[in-house]
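Retro notes, item 3 of 5
We never archived the inputs for the protoporphyrin IX containing FE complex last cycle. Fixing that now. Sequence and ligand:
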Amino acid sequence: MRLIPFIRASALALGLIGGAWAQPAPESAAANAAASAAVAAASAPAPAAPGLGGIQSANIFEIAPDATADPAYGQHTNAERGRVQPGNNAPLWRAVGSGVTGYSSLPTSQAPEAGNLIQPMVQYPGARFTTAGEGWRQVRNHWLIPYGGSLLLIALVALLLLYFAKGSLGQARNEGRPVIERFTPFERSAHWLNAIAFVLLALSGIVMAFGKFFLQPVMGLQLFGWLTYLLKNAHNFAGPLFAVSLAVVLVTFLRDNIASIWDLLWLKNAGGMLGDKQVPSHRFNPAEKGMYWWGMFFPGLIAVGSGLVLDKLVPGLGITRGEMQIAHMIHLVATVVMMSMLAGHIYMGTLGVRGAYKAMRTGWVDEEWAKEHHELWYDDVVAGKIPAQRSGQGVQPQPPVRTASV
Ligand code: HEM
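Structure as it came back at the time:
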């Protein structure tokens, strides 16, 4: 879809180097003098064409200073203004500035905003009543960037404090004999493909939105420009991939993320976080289920939907600037919420819970880990309601849970 930008990027880089190398040798002084004389002549105001009453470079208000005395001066059309002050196009630019659409020969079917230089006035939430482009700029720079950035930082600091306060949760390290298959090869590959696409999108998105505050001062404008250009294209590629992998992950784990009555007991005791023993939960505890719905499912669908509009992949949408501005604002809100929530998931899935990472890397957990973290799920496996091994992956020859009494 967008391979061209990569080729263009490298061609441009090569061109820049080549251009610098191919600079022509300095010409003689006489030739330079002739060249600058030619430039001076070209920029000199053209002499007034005979009979057209043309304007040479003059201050418009010196031409007909009394024109402003006319009470209707402010309401002039451009034609009327041209009659009293030829060359004064203020009415035209005032109309353009307020979003009026002028004549254009382009078919609106192909160019719906043809003839419209500045968008009409709108009131975006958090911005004053102004032209849409300015409104979007205000929402982005006064609200989304400062508050979105703060939310991300707060999430990271909170996780850091949690780690220093509680360390890695759980006693079981999942280093014993693997007896229960927690994630099948299909679930794990869907998860990690999705995780890789997400991390790529998150990092490139953070650089595009916030990089100018922490990267540009270090890298300098040129290098930061190139990096952002490259990451924007990587973002446009990873987006559709994430859309597909996210859909697969959400469908795959949907059934086990539906709330059950046991979750209320878990929530009532905050999962045992305040005590020293975890409250029994099923395959996924309510914190994971909450993460699934409020960190992955809803913000994920909104982030992907608005992202596909920005990628111009939704037919009939993402054509006008207004649609792109609205899609961008929705996208930034949904992705910042998703990144802040998933920072928690990634933390719990690496440092936060002992042995959890191994579960998603190998797919298997030992008896102690299953019992400590997901006792109700473990009981169902022991009772034979859930098979201890769900996929045919043959790497783990072990006796059935029941007979081995695990
Ligand atoms: C580097 C990034 C990530 C890491 C290290 C990570 C790690 C993990 C780990 C260790 C588990 C197993 C937890 C358990 O056994 O209960 C897990 C489960 C899961 N992860 Fe991730 N993950 C990452 C990114 C993502 C992303 C981007 C998504 C989706 C947007 C996601 C969706 C899920 C889902 C749906 C589950 C199953 C648990 C549940 O449904 O609640 N993960 N992850």
